């Protein structure tokens, strides 16, 4: 299982049996709208607060994934969930209504792949027959907590990113059909001293490349093993830095081989500055768009590196720089022999 | 590995090879002072904020545990850490300096056993040779975030609990000597509608008993298999309720068989109202006091049920009740055959 210092190879290749992809109004106008199961036409989702709206996203993502997998909630051993809200409030309240034994995770935007890695691990090692990994974010809940209430209309620099309103859930199973999880690399926390919360992509890029290097070193894989390497949400600036760092460290990537989930979800004309972010971003792009491409045969093997900026409003106020992390998970299309 | 619906049995019995137990001034005056590795004489630990002080607690707990285990940080594959501060700020910053691949967990005060369960799971299944699980809390950081700055001197009802200033770390290994982790039960989120954040023990008791029932049902163990069943931090009121619930559900416990970490750490005359709480509470009582008793032969098999109140200041303001969870881990003394 453990290979090298910080990676796992999943010999039995746990199956992503089904997924649930739920989004908000901004996502409904985005490039990947067709790949969502449910799209809400406003940010409230019938609730009295944005955090409760996010709970609805998580509940629907899990319910949809479980239903599409032909399973019932009772058959799922564990729910692995995390989000950006203090004390994971939306995840907790979704866990309360779903009643599935619950493991709370926090890795900021990297939570999506922390959850998928752990769910695949549990299934690989017979600790679960079925586990659901879910990651989510809500634009207004995040703005309110980390920045200003959106009603203030505060301006942002072009390096800032737009938090996605979405939840993506994946049911990982020991049986069924679907793309397969083949390995995972758990990242270290890297902090290069950047402290601007409006340039998180720049701060996160070194963590992404550190995990990428560790992944290749530990698993013996090389860039050509993947049709696509996709970061969680580095955005335009972070992705450019990450590409430069790869070059410096001798990781040779083909043109268009390294992309970013944060640059895929919205259209060119949506005002998202440097790109999208949030745990929900990499979750819905991976579980929706990328897995659909795998099912259509357009992608055979991908590596998803979800990045997380582990800052808090408090660490920023205390003039700390931004510690960052990235977790990588490799997925291969069904029927691809390794 | 998976037994029943939500439990794991660890056949190879991963070893708690070493521990690090760090506390603050209130703990230095407590009943278990002798069982700490380091005790600080003030709440600041040489730092400029309580959150940074908590980072020091975590760093020292991990370093001490790793050193006592005769290992170096490089030999530890994964650090599993969580705390009560928003975005796990103290854990994150400790992860940054320790440079060990990092998995962030959040289960409020149940984080201690969420971490130990996951670390033992990873070692059992050869996903790690050595993993360090650490849980922590800091009284003043918690008061400031969840309640009022301590300088206000706000009064509390007798049902309230006192958050422990401490970090407890355990190095779980595939080899070495020490008590062994034999099974774990991951809890569901239970909410009985209580909403008083000054009576969290009462809110958490049903979750503790739900997990206890699940543990016995899944593993086939019965109360007489354990010399001691110890809850994380139910406090006086929560423990009384939990005992009553056990009786109602036909779980027959001997006199003094069911205790609470929150009632062990301080002396009778310390003003802690209904008892102690915080992820650091169950971590230091278990990794210090209880494992020491196992090493001395006074306890053979114990079950630790760490309870967590998954509320947030925001969920309280939004008039929500308190969702609670509990995770149970069973530990047996070295050389005890099962």
UniProtKB/TrEMBL annotation, chains A, B:
Record gene name: spoVAD
Annotated source species: Alkalicoccobacillus gibsonii
Name of the protein: Stage V sporulation protein AD
Pfam family, one: SpoVAD
Gene3D superfamilies in the record: Stage V sporulation protein AD
InterPro entries: SpoVAD, SpoVAD_sf, Thiolase-like
